[in-house]
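Quarterly update from the structural biology core.
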Amino acid sequence: MRARVILADDHQMMREGLRTVLEQQSGVEVVGEADDGRGALRMVEELAPHVVVMDVGMPELNGIEATRQITSKHPAVKVVALSIHCDRRYVLEMLEAGASAYVVKEAAASDLIDAIHAVMRNRKYLSPQITDVVVDSYVEMRIPIETAASTALGPREREVLQLLAEGHTSSAIASKLHISVSTVETHRRNIMRKLDLHSVAELTKYAIREGLTTPEP
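Predicted structure, tokenized:
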């Protein structure tokens, strides 16, 4: 069976490079590309892929949240996380969200094919660079897989928090999420109350620290 794959990454050159690598494989078919998490969600609905190669850090809706929603709504779809980060927080957050594999971008060309083949056989795959991160976490029995953001906030609140941190206005957020401006404001108040934060600047710092978004280069 050919693996139907969607590529989700906000860098076009990265997607083009991955597509070139994957199209050389007889058992893999790239059926779509998305440049943010929300686009990836739409494509999963429309194209019914077997695998989504998901960049962890994307605008609008980050890879962690997109993975959480995909694996919740479409449990048969496998997610291969793709990231420049070997940081323990990102790795464990993606695995907790339901990713079946985690590939480091610097090794993507060599690891991605192995990861796709593994998840298609219902197996897990980790790039060698991050294996120690996961093993050490389990051995030491200190695995806070759920961060404060994932435990304190609901899915919609995490989406609103990311968009606020990325500088979107309440009206823009309302339009993107198809909710009213008053609902966005309610979410913002609830987020601030739950996290005991009191300004958008504090929310932005928190979102970056928790991996919900990344700072502008």
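Strands lie at 3-8, 28-34, 51-55, 78-83, 101-104, 125-126.
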